Amino acid sequence: MSRSRCDGLLAKVDFPLYTLQTLTNRHVIVAGGGGASNTGVANGFEIFELSHNGSKFVAEEVMRHETGPNVVMNCSVRNVQNRTYLTAGQESHCQLYKVNIRMVDAAEMRRGSFRAENGLVRRRRRTVSENDNISKMDNNCNTTEKRISFEMRPSDSVQTDFSDDPLQRVVSISPDGNLMATGGVDGIIRVWNFPQMQLLFELKGHTKELDDLDFSPCSSKLVSIAKDGFAHLWATKEKAAPLLQLTCQPPNGTKFLFRRCKFAMVEDKPNEQRMFTIANPLARSGKQRGLLQLWEPNSGTLQRSVVCNEALSALTVRDDGRFVGVGTMFSGSVDIYIAFSLQRVLHVKSAHRMFVTGLAFLPVRGYGPSITSRSEAALLSISVDNCLYVHALPQRSTMPAWLAIVLIIFVLFCTFCACSYLGI
């Protein structure tokens, strides 16, 4: 399925967006900013609650947290022992936030207020998609329905990069919530215990700055990619040499560099795992076509590879391992693939006006009630155009059971007639 610029605009904020995470099955956090320079562009987070009104997805802002002069370039979210933590890359440091979740009356939220981290009450701004539902919400403002509210409190902060011009480029929290890995310009992976934020050991194998990190679903492995062109797989128990070193394997022999990497569980097989990477040509001349590749992470075997129409900038996998999403560098397009076959099932051309900076599927195994819709999957995307979009994959049509039965009877009848005619 292919379509042009999507109509799934959920929200437009007042700062460029660089990172995107889901907090629950229906809550998403976006972050970014204008940097330390005095441009008047804010730095911080915004949390939105998503729902489906019967015809499309809509978003409602829940809270906003500003981070002063520190732009948020990357972040990771994890629930540990019924507590939700968020870690955010802010220049050379990683800032830990404790996210308090509480239930409040829906009427209180709809009056437009929320409790910020400093105890002050700030006005909630309506989003683009919410304006379509104002009258419906106002008619139900006296309801006793409970809604989830969030409170973000800054906690520990640690320096994670020690280069001459230090910058944390990526952070990832392990699925079991016990470890955090960070990478930056100095090319060193630092593994921390979590949420204590104490350095355990350093992994040195890359010669250039890190681009991405991700833990395996069982938290026993860590994949890293850097601008030196290599992907390394590490054991997370202790400091050691890489288990595997991978290089991109393009179909035509052209030199490619990895851009992003993601582990994923195999659907309905929780003890098995896959690994996905995206890569772009090293040469910048001519039309660049990116690669989406599927790997077997234990042996490092490349299982499947597809050539995309342009260079790629973002990668994500749904939490059940069924779908893969990619975003493009130049046209701001978004694609959804089936994970095991890498068959493209949705293409949204020019979803954003600029390159895609972050992607996340609405989870199906996350915290809280799921969103009811007619979609088989819903992919969220952000960009430096300040916009949050949703791209819904419609339920793919299947043959009704009654039609299958009729066809079987018809085939049997035709077979019987043919056999009778031939005297068999």
UniProtKB/TrEMBL annotation:
Locations listed in the record: Endoplasmic reticulum membrane
Annotated Pfam families: WD40
GO molecular function, one term: guanyl-nucleotide exchange factor activity
Membrane topology: Single-pass membrane protein
SUPFAM superfamilies for the chain: WD40 repeat-like
GO cellular component terms attached to this protein's record: endoplasmic reticulum membrane
GO BP annotations, alphabetical order: endoplasmic reticulum to Golgi vesicle-mediated transport; protein transport; regulation of COPII vesicle coating
Main location: endoplasmic reticulum
Residue intervals passing through the bilayer: 401-423
Originating species: Leptosia nina
UniProt WD repeat ranges: 171-202, 203-234
Keywords in alphabetical order: Endoplasmic reticulum, ER-Golgi transport, Membrane, Protein transport, Repeat, Transmembrane, Transmembrane helix, Transport, WD repeat
Name the UniProt record assigns to this protein: Prolactin regulatory element-binding protein
Record InterPro entries: Sec12-like, WD40/YVTN_repeat-like_dom_sf, WD40_repeat_dom_sf, WD40_rpt
